[in-house]
Design brief:
single chain, about 200 residues, alpha+beta, five-stranded antiparallel β-sheet, three-stranded antiparallel β-sheet
């Protein structure tokens, strides 16, 4: 039903079925983990209105397992990538996942990924632990700037000066200075507020 992938390792499908709605993956050598991918294997989809809440546990120095909510997968979104490197050093509020279940205490170098089948209306409103989402505004900003630089370079490659222009009554011309000014303003606004485009 589920698979798990840690960057640089083989895909894991050897989950431990705890009960009808809870499964666990053991991740050994946890100190080397930066990102994990959790996905549906396609063997069994979620029932209507249900999804899989993804939890991650990193053993505390005392050896206790602290569960942190990362996000979720659904039939419509059958995979998700999570950044877990920040969870090792940071702290997060303990989550109720697996608290009522007796689970064997793992080694201090092993983390666990837990998946709980829950109603979508419940998991969609949970807040993931800080630093776990890989689709951050920083990567959005980087994409936006690369896309705009590409557009600017492409449009600039067609630039001609006024002596090279031939009269074409059906063609609109935009001065390169206008494109350049817009591009400089966009970069300035993006540096000041990455969400300015939403306003």
């Amino acid at each position: 039903m589920f698979g798990c992938l840690v960057a640089g390792r083989l895909v894991q499908t050897d989950m431990q079925q705890i009960d009808d709605t809870h499964v666990l993956f053991n991740i050994f050598n946890a100190a080397t983990i930066n990102h994990i991918v959790v996905f549906l294997t396609g063997i069994k989809a979620f029932p209507e209105g249900m999804g899989g809440a993804i939890y991650f546990s990193w053993p505390s120095p005392e050896g206790e397992m602290v569960w942190m909510f990362l996000g979720f997968i659904t039939n419509d979104k059958p995979s998700a990538i999570f950044k877990v490197v920040g969870l090792k050093k940071g702290s997060s509020a303990n989550n109720s996942f697996m608290q009522s279940m007796p689970v064997q205490q793992p080694m201090k170098t092993m983390s666990q990924i837990g998946i709980s089948v829950e109603p979508l209306h419940v998991i969609q409103h949970q807040i993931p632990a800080e630093t776990t989402q890989t689709s951050t505004l920083t990567s959005f900003s980087e994409f936006s700037m690369k896309m705009l630089e590409n557009f600017y370079n492409y449009a600039s490659s067609f630039g001609i000066n006024q002596s090279q222009m031939t009269p074409q009554p059906n063609v609109s011309w935009i001065p390169m200075t206008v494109l350049d000014k817009w591009f400089q303003n966009f970069k300035k606004k993006m540096a000041q507020d990455q969400n300015f485009w939403r306003k």
